[in-house]
Amino acid sequence: MQIFIQTLVTGIVTGCLYALIALGYSMVYGILKLLNFAHGDLYMIGAFVGYFVIQWFGGATALIIPVPLLIIIMFLLAGVGVGGLGMAIERFAYRPLRDAPRIAPLITALGISFILEDSVLLLFGGFVRQYNAPAFIPFSTGITVDGVNIDVVQIMIVTVSVLMMLGLFVLVNRTLFGKSMRAVASDREAAEMLGIDVNRVVALTFFIGSALAGIAGVMSGLNFEPISSIIGFLAGLKAFTAAVVGGIGSIPGAMIGGLLIGLCESFSSSYISSQYSDLIVFGILIATMLVRPQGVFGQPPLQKV
Amino acid sequence: MAPVGVDEWVARSGDKREQATGLRGILVRISERVGWWPRLALLAIGGFVFAQLGINVNEQTVAFNSVIYAILAVGLNITVGWAGLLDLGYVAFFGVGAYGYALFSSHAFGTLALSTGGIHLPVIATIPIVLVAAGILGVLIGLVALRLEGDYLAIVTLFVGTAFVEAVNNIAPTTLGGNNGLFGLDPFHAFGGRISSVRGYYYLGLIMLIVLMAALRLLEHSRTGRAWRALRDDPLAAEVMTVPVNALKVMAFSFGAIVAALAGTLFAGEQDSVFPPDFQSIILITIYACLVLGGVGGIAGAVLGGVTVTVAEALLSSPTDSSYLFYGLILLAVIARVRPWRHMIMVVGAIVGLGLAARAIVGAISHSAVSGSAGTVGWIGRVMHHYVIVPSGPASLTYGKIMYAILICALILIVQLKGVWRLVAVVPTVYVAACCWESLLIVESGTTAVVMLGAILVVMMAARPHGLLGQRKVEVV
Amino acid sequence: MKVRRLFLGALGVMALASVTVFGASSSAHSATAAKAACKASIAVEAPFATGPAIQQGLEQLHFAQLAVANDNKSLGIKVTLGQNDTGLNPALATTRSQAIIASPAVAVVGPAGSQEVEAVGPLFKAAGMAFISGSATNSTLTSGANPTFFRVVAPDSVQGPQDANYIIKKLKPKAILIIDDEEAYSTGLVSVMTPIFTAAGITVNHQSYNGNDTGATLSSDLSSLVTSQLNPSETVVVLPWQSAPNAELFGQTMQQQGKTATLFGTDGTNVPGQFTIPGAFSSNFGPDISTSKSALDKALVKGVKKYGPYGPFGVPAYVATDVAMHAIASVCKAGKKPTRANVLAAVRKTNIPAGKNPLGLPIVFKANGEMKNAVFYLFKIQPNGKYLQVPSKA
User: Fold this and answer.
1) Least confident interval from A58-72, B138-152, C124-138, C218-232
2) What is the pLDDT of residue B463?
3) Does position C127 have pLDDT exceeding 90, yes or no?
4) Distance of alpha carbon B27 from its chain centroid, rounded?
5) Helix (H) or strand (E) segment spanning residue C186
6) Which of B269, B297, B296 is nearest to B68 (CA)?
7) Distance CA C274, CA C268 (A)
8) CB–CB of C81/C43 below 8 Å?
9) C211 three-class SS
10) Does C307 touch chain A (CB under 8 A)?
């Protein structure tokens, strides 16, 4: 039972992180039909921002400000900074390609990914960094369920993720901006004709999606993830998978997809084999997709004749 | 007369090309009159003559790698370019080819009781076996993929790529070598002869490439080729027109797989070893970069892309060459993009003047601030030493990092600025770039190479979204 | 209009003048450079820009750069260092090696991984070039296929048994958990150590996780391993990994889940500041130079400070470069040209005394390229995260 609960906790926490990153993927895909493979690198930059915030305020073992304030500053800076970076990337790299064939931005994204990763190497070096979060958020501050310790960071990850997803859901479904976003998603040219500033909508979407990735970076750093220039690739890959499984372009889909992958991973490596966990996860996903080819939450596309 | 299905705008660009005057117009018309097979012959002759020019083993290796990536890109073009199936498991077939060669033409099976010492089949027998195996595997995966479209297909095929590496790592570690790989393989051998030099493999690769290009050219204009394109442009319409959609999809997968496996055998022979990391996602990404850069949908584009990416990568990896490339590209950008001529001369003059002045002023204030040596070796470095500001000692690294940050901000600014102000901003930006290059970028030249490769990809895609040889096409919305 | 023309003219004159100045000064510069007595170039191959081991690769590169700078001064030679990123990928290493062979380089430092050594060995054999690795530890590399290969670290067949025996005799576990990361380095060590444990009557629980694609893990694999595989009877966990941060992650996850066991990492985990779990052990090719009193080590620590922290791969890379530099110097001293053959012969006769290199061992090679009396050091991590050297022989 203990193993089961522990595995469940691990799966949900990782799944929430995947979901946050997947959201950005899915939103961008929804409005531009563009696979932003540089998205994982934004997550990496977010993790770095959080690390430097800790260093500015004295380092993990000698913080000069209270921990909640530190975490708020980390989230704000990572969100705004990475969001802005995402907007800049859209403006300079993707906008010129908006009417290009669908596969062209893939290569641009690859180029951006090279530039981001190796710029980080040039500026900060290759030494892998750690937040060392247990030094300022002790493990003892948490709750115990049936002998399983769930610490504050894990609770925070789940809470923050759920709040952000709810916020996003409200934003997309209840606000004017959300309406224009959906309009651009369903038909960009028609939206433009109706007077919607498409460039603004796209830029804001990139901002929000990137900010979520940045915040996910900070949170996974707090959850002891080592921080280096290469962590974005794997995170991006997992998030892409989550987005597709959930039904790419769908916001609840990205959340469910992320959770699904997180849980599949933790249960398969706990109960079956950690050696083949990637294969098992992929196998489950493919089985899911053969049953529902449009993803769990995806709508079958309207065939235009 | 524009072909059917090309819209008005594109047709007009076609007209413009026909009306081009001067030398360019003549060249365009001549090249259009030349059929495909003389061009192919020209490529073949060029390829052979190139290897006869007394090139060294490094250039031979780069040439061989270009051929490998060209073959891979041409094969990927069948699946992605013609049939429009986003196949992210393509690299697995490359691996199947390589491991297939290691199994059938070398000692790998020697670990089994039945075949002590391995089965050293001649390559002429191995290649058909491997290609048939890869083709069957392609059919199987194609059958699974039938239910899925677009990005959903991408995920399933991505699994194939991951599964291949995992399988090699974990299944039958004594035969497949696990993550230790298989090494000391036999070279290509048949009819008592063997290939023992990189140049030999290059020639063989070139022959394979030329034959492949010719065969694919025929396929492209056959009934199947047309059906593939119909399928890619509008699957529903194609199906209505009684095009056998499913069979065509499976065929595209299978053909792509066969070409990739062919490249794999050649690769394994030349390397005389195979290791799981050789077939990881980075190789797949590179193949995609080749194809998209060259222009999806065209055979010549795929080949050009393969050559471009491989050569760019090789040039960037050498610090001296990458310095030439860096300063050359800046110079070229200024000369080609700044118009009219007198503006261009003014900008170049100002760049030179600003640097000399800045260095003189800073040098007068503090000698150690300019006494660091320029990172580039050779005459460029000696010239640059009198031009850029590089502090001596450990400070140069920090200085270089600051310059790098400034450079990125300045580049973003330049794109935003308009008119004269953009020209004015170019001058200090180029100087900052030179200072940064000499103090940081060339010192960490390996890392810089990746950044530059990324920048080249971004700029090239922005300049030619349809690829180097790609044709503008209107997507059906 | 006139003003502009005048301005243009002035700019033109300025440009012309500056070109002349450059030309004159650069020719003067090359005239002085030609006088230097012993000129050669060497190349370093390491995964410092791409692939999963950038941290280790950059460390090797920076220490090699430092060694070249130091030895150029102290040995009075003028050697330049070419850098080649291999991404820990054998195919890329092959391409880069061909580039090195076509260049004037006379010796190679690296490559880093054992797979890469296997891939490039035949090329350097054919070119008659010495290549000296500071991190490839697979035992089979020196069994004859690579006659120009040298290494300044002990092979797995030394580290594996030494660590295993230490665990058996000092930590006395009844059962252990050993986890490989599916890299060749890791699986190689596991296959050496597991039989020793089994022979000593210890129950071995062997697991693996996928550390292949990147050095980092954003995955629940490690967490799940702690949850489901670390049984209370297993008092020692052996982590033969390249990545110290992942070892730290494993340790922190154990603390998070309230589990206890002694962690035992191999050389890759030996990074003070990254692997800091108190009570854990970590073995290493070299001694800890950060606390050393010797002037050489102090200068080394100062020299690499600008690059930030470093781990276990720097010192061997420094020594590997040292070997090449000394070989070139000795060839020049004997009045010969530093050709590949001469340098290779000189590398075979390398003899750098223990006090003159940061490994603290006399650097002398056996005929197969293996170091004579290479050892592994063992460290125990203190509660403050500092590394304390402990006697490694059980």
Assistant:
1) C218-232
2) 85
3) yes
4) 27
5) helix C184-199
6) B269
7) 11
8) yes
9) coil
10) yes
State the pLDDT at residue B14: 58
Neighbours of C101 (CB within 10 A): 22
Pick from A7, A127, A228: CB nearest C228: A7
Higher-scoring residue by pLDDT: C21, B220: B220
Q: Which among A101, A285, A303 is the nearest to B155, CB-wise? A: A285
Amino acid C351: pLDDT: 92
Residue spans of chain B under pLDDT 50: 1-5, 476-477
Q: What percent of chain A lies above the pLDDT cut of 70?
A: 98
Tokens 């195919």 correspond to C91
Q: Which of C19, A219, A49, C201 is nearest to B387 (CA)?
A: C19
Going through B163-309 in order, the beta strands assigned E by DSSP cover 182-183, 189-190, 193-194, 273-274
Q: Is B332 helix (H, G, I), strand (E, B) or coil?
A: helix
Identify whether the C-beta of residue B221 lies closer than 8 Å to the C-beta of residue B47: no
d(CA C238, CA C264): 5
**ipTM score:** 0.89
Task: Please name the residue of chain C whose CA is at the shortest distance from the CA of residue A274.
Answer: C209
DSSP B208-225: HHHHHHHHHHHHHTSHHH
- What radius of gyration, in Å, describes the C-alpha atoms of chain C? 24
Classify burial at B472, counting beta carbons within 10 Å of its beta carbon; exposed 0-12, middle 13-18, buried 19 or more.
middle
Q: What pLDDT, on the 0 to 100 scale, is given for residue C35? A: 43
Burial classification of residue A193, based on how many CB atoms lie within 10 Å of its CB (0-12 exposed, 13-18 middle, 19 or more buried): exposed
pLDDT of residue C165: 92
Which of B61, B273, B345 lies closest to C90 in CB terms? B273
**pLDDT top residue among C46 and B466:** C46
pLDDT at residue number A163 = 94
- Secondary structure (DSSP) of A239-301: HHHHHHHH-TT-HHHHHHHHHHHHHHHHHIIIII-STTHHHHHHHHHHHHHHHSTT-SSPPPP
Instruction: Give me Rg for the CA atoms of chain B.
Output: 26
SS3 at position C43: strand
Over the stretch C213-267, which tens digit does the pLDDT of each residue have? 544 455 567 888 888 888 889 999 999 988 888 899 899 889 888 889 999 999 8
Interface of C with B in 93-132 (CB under 8 A): 94-96, 98-99, 101-103, 114-115, 118-119, 122
So what's the pLDDT on residue C31? 40
| Core vs surface per residue C175-207: b (16+ CB within 10 A) or e | ebbbbbbbbbbbbbbbbbbbebbeeeebebebb
pTM of the shown model: 0.89
Q: Spell out the alpha helix ranges (H) of chain A.
A: 2-32, 39-56, 67-89, 104-124, 152-174, 176-186, 188-193, 198-222, 231-246, 251-267, 277-291
pLDDT digits (tens, 9 = 90+) for C190-200: 989 999 999 99
Q: State the DSSP string of C71-107.
A: HHHHHT-EEEEEEEE-TT-HHHHHHHHHHHHHSS--E
Residue of A nearest to C51 (CA): A230
Can you say whether the dihedral through the CA atoms of B23, B26, B31, B32 is positive or negative?
positive
CB contact under 8 A, B166 and A278: yes
| CA-wise closest residue to C359 among C275, C273, C305, C300 | C300
pLDDT tens digits for A93-151? 898 888 788 788 888 998 999 999 999 999 998 888 988 888 888 887 788 888 788 88
What lies within 8 Å, CB to CB, of B140 at 6+ separation is none
CA distance B420 to B429: 15
